[in-house]
Hints:
The protein has two domains: 7-170, Creatinase/prolidase N-terminal domain (Creatine Amidinohydrolase, Chain A, domain 1), CATH 3.40.350.10; 173-400, Alpha-Beta Complex (Creatine Amidinohydrolase). It is 37% helix and 19% strand. It has 13 helices and 21 strands. The protein starts with 6 loop residues before the first helix and ends in a 10-residue tail after the last strand. The model has no long low-confidence stretch (mean pLDDT 96).
Amino acid sequence: xxxxxxxxxxxGNRRRLKELFTGTAPIIMTANGLTQxxxxxxxxxxxxxxxxxxxxxxxPDLVLVMDRDREYLIAPELSDYQxxxxxAAPAETxxxxxxxxxxxxxxxGWQQLGGRVKKVKHVATLAPPPAYVxxxxxxxxxxxxxxxxxxxxxxxxxxxxxxxxxxARLRMVKQPxxxxxIQAAIDITIASLKDAFRPAKRGKYAAExxxxxxxxxxxxxxxxxxxxxxPIVAGGERACxxxxxxxxxxxxADELIxxxxxxxxxxxxxxxxxxxxxxxxxRRQQAVYAAVLEAQEYAMGLxxxxxxxxxxxxxxxxxxxxxxxxxxxxxxxTHEKVRHYCPHATSHFLxxxxxxxxxxxxxxxxxxxxxxxPGIYIPEESLGVRxxxxxxxxxxxxxxxxxxxxxxxx
Length: 410
């Protein structure tokens, strides 16, 4: 797939970050590093999204320096093993892609940077995350922490200025090239789902992984890098576990199936959910589905420039509460009762990451891309329904970027 991005895009992002930061401290960013899968093999490399946003580079362990009117990259020090098995990107390739013409090898680059760090009180960077995030049960990439540790070997008193809010603000509003990449990912996802959901194919799926495989094949043959996140194909009660990614259970004709997937195209993600049935749905299944669809339409009607996400989420929660009461699931609407059946937020930012960075306390503005994905999950009835589309905030409201994928329960 031809890229939507040129070196001017990345140079413009660096310039806008410096303008937004306004400080005089050197800006220093690191790429992600490889992480071990087992023995001498690594997991597939995934670049730090903000580093890619500023450079367009997919190589591990690079360091970006923006210091006053200077920009340069520091290449990692590679072992003979790495050179033989993994290779190294030529400096000319890095320069052409990023628009950064000065590229130092590891030794010379750190001589330059170390000498500068010794003379300053502050550097601006992206703060390292905790090594382990308890809420998600995830170990994080150690590259940012390693960068800070290396900087402090040159200046133990060095203080860090976190650029996280600045980068989130920039990435929150998409530029035309980003919107084109997101739309490409969405179009691939739609085409693949339409194909996978065809009646002639639908009756042949005996297990969740068969449907998952058909969708993944569709992504790759249409030019996507693959899945933007672990795909979810979950039938019946399994759909009530929101991130049920095992996809290893047999499919039953009397169950609804939640399919939550998105292609990755040119580094940008789609995120679309449809709930389908392999046989005519029951009246109860249709009623729950209709309630979720109404909630999605209501949510889309609320979104426009100036809306605060937290207020929007509260309004959608109250609407879902009304639907739950109509379905006989609750008698009174409270936060706890609604969240028992609707445990997740309705919207999140979408972009380089499927759950992209953004400021949830900042009013929406044109150019923001969001998901709209209400859901109702009833474990005691082995029934889960989620409907998700990707929308662009415009001057007037929102444009549904995934509207070409039907939302009727079939």
